[in-house]
Write a structure and sequence with these properties.
Blueprint: H1 2-19, E1 33-38, H2 44-55, E2 59-60, H3 63-72, E3 80-86, H4 96-101, E4 107-110, H5 112-117, H6 123-130, H7 146-154, E5 158-161, H8 174-191, E6 200-202, H9 213-222, E7 225-227
Parallel strand pairs: 1-3, 2-3, 3-4, 4-5, 6-7
Helix pairs in contact: 8-9
């Protein structure tokens, strides 16, 4: 299966490079500003090679630079790319030397409630097995802890909000949504140094079917920057 994935990925990037798909939807011919989302990373060599490939056509910008561009709507000098990670998997920690190699400062969107649950030997396995259908003994499920996140901050990276428990927010009642977000915000503020990215959230799952008017309206009051997984020139 991994071989098939690699063939597909290589084929996709070859086509993308030829057709310039990264800016294909930019009808106004403005210099593109994009966000690239990663989750867990099993193949660090491929990750490094991908960043090397992208660095030839894009400049990597820091979270604060990205926020400044968004706030001021200022011009950018060349195609610019912000690197982000969703969910806060433990293997994200091993990207630090690779990100340093390319002078990349990234945003790691984490679920503070799950970080707390991971400390327990009962609740976290129940949640993993029943909600996400993942065997809690699987190493793929291990998440970053608060010490890991402090290491990321100390290496120049930012921490953003990904909700408390990675529930599908558009399925939550107004009260549950408020409780989830308030809890996640309080845990970030309690356990980490202040980070401008605290004012940003990435929708769990992030697809068009996971976002509705109610959740978007509430999050827009609680956060200045809202990220999703929607593709294209959004």
């Amino acid at each position: 299966m991994s071989t098939i994935k690699n063939i597909f990925r290589n084929h996709y990037f070859n086509i993308s490079e030829k057709l310039n798909l990264f800016s294909f939807l930019n009808f106004e011919k403005k210099i593109p500003l994009r966000v690239l989302i990663f989750h867990d990373l099993k193949d660090l060599q491929s990750f490094s090679e991908l960043l090397d490939h992208l660095s030839k056509s894009w400049q990597f910008i820091t979270p604060n630079q990205f926020f400044e561009f968004i706030d001021s709507n200022q011009e950018i000098s060349k195609p610019s790319l912000l690197i982000t990670f969703d969910d806060g998997f433990k293997d994200n920690l091993y990207t630090i030397p690779i990100l340093q190699k390319f002078s990349i400062s990234a945003i790691f969107f984490v679920c503070p409630g799950l970080i707390e649950l991971q400390k327990t030997k009962l609740l976290f396995p129940i949640l993993a097995n029943n909600l996400y259908k993942i065997n809690s003994k699987n190493q793929d499920l291990i998440l970053l802890d608060w010490d890991d996140l402090r290491i990321l901050q100390n290496n120049g990276h930012s921490i953003g909000n990904h909700s408390s428990f990675h529930f599908q927010l558009n399925n939550l009642s107004s009260q549950c949504l408020k409780m989830d977000i308030n809890f996640s915000k309080s845990l970030l503020e309690k356990n980490l140094e202040f980070d401008k990215a605290f004012d940003s959230i990435a929708f769990p799952f992030g697809g068009i079917n996971h976002i509705n008017k109610k959740s978007l309206k509430y999050l827009s009051k609680e956060f200045k920057y809202i990220f999703s997984g929607l593709r294209g020139n959004n």
